[in-house]
Amino acid sequence: RALILAFSCDPHQSMEERNGWNRALQAASNYQTVVLCGPHCDQSILEKSIPDDLKGRIQFVVVPLAPKIHSQLDREISFYRGYRGWTVEAKRLAMKLHEETPFDFAHLVSLCGFREPGTFYELPMPFILGPIGGTSGFPLSYLRYGDFFGGLFEISRNVVNYFQRNYSKRISNALTKSAVVLAAN
Questions:
Q1: Which of 95, 114, 122, 150 could pair with 132 in a Cys bridge, judged by C-beta atoms 3.0 to 4.6 Å apart?
Q2: Would you say the C-alpha torsion 141, 165, 87, 183 has a positive or negative sign?
Q3: Spacing of C-alpha 166 from chain mean position
């Protein structure tokens, strides 16, 4: 049995949503699969979109969130705090489901960045992280092609990326304790 942790999951939306959707379908082609999704996922659309040959092999579960956490997801400034709240609730639900019927592995497939891996690597099963990306710095030679504020944003992001990559215990733990890490850049 596979546990897919796909905060974003939809066959018809952006790359992040399609990534979650397609990874879930790939898992279901080989395993009984449970997909834990974020609160913006529409379970009825997901269920209607399951290909006939995978019906009965895949189940989508939208992880319920407290209104305070849910509202954080709608603002860019607080998104990662809300996403971290989702990872806490998804891990709690994953543990409950695992106790009922054990999973063979868990795979966190979204978001495609490295910033918030959650603590899914603590689940009592092999953990797959990724694909992750976003760790490369913006080339400073490109700054001349943008405006001042865009350049300031990219320099700031480079600094934040550097500190998160090198000093975040959660990111370090997720990378070192995962059975597999998939990278995309």
A1: 114
A2: positive
A3: 20
Tens-place pLDDT, residues 65-80 = 998 888 998 888 898 8
User: Closest Cα partner for 138 from 152, 121, 125, 148?
Assistant: 152
Check: CB of residue 92 under 8 Å from CB of residue 113.
no
Q: How far apart are CA 154 and CA 140, in angstroms?
A: 9
Which is nearest to 120 in space by CA: 134, 104, 101, 106? Answer: 106
Phi, psi of 111 (to 5 degrees): -80, 165
Length of the chain in residues, anyone?
Answer: 185
Q: 83 is written with which tokens?
A: 């996403």
Strand ranges for 30-73 from DSSP E: 33-37, 58-62
Q: What is the pLDDT of residues 6-36, one digit of tens each?
A: 999 999 888 888 889 999 999 999 999 999 9
Which among 84, 49, 50, 52 has a CA at the least distance from the CA of 69? 84
pTM for this model (two decimals): 0.88
Yes or no: say if 58 and 25 are a contact pair by the CB < 8 Å rule: yes
Q: What's the token pair of residue 58?
A: 């895949």
Six-digit token string for 103: 């999973």
